[in-house]
Amino acid sequence: MRTRLLLALGALLILIGIYVAIRPLFGSGPVTGSRPLDAGFAVFFLLRGVMNLRAARRQSRAAGPDVPRSPSPN
Hints:
Blueprint lengths: L1 H21 L12 H29 L11
Helix pairs in contact: 1-2
């Protein structure tokens, strides 16, 4: 459950970071009113999103494969 949450939040943060970063390039003004502040927010959201995706990948590897175990014949 936590892995899915980290994946979803990581993807959302990356999308927000991309939006904040490219919005001023298309003639719209900056989201915050200041381009340097927008750049800072974009970097923060992108880095935080990447950190969440890496944490989710690390957790999924540590958990191992989701293979149902068959009962052992004792």
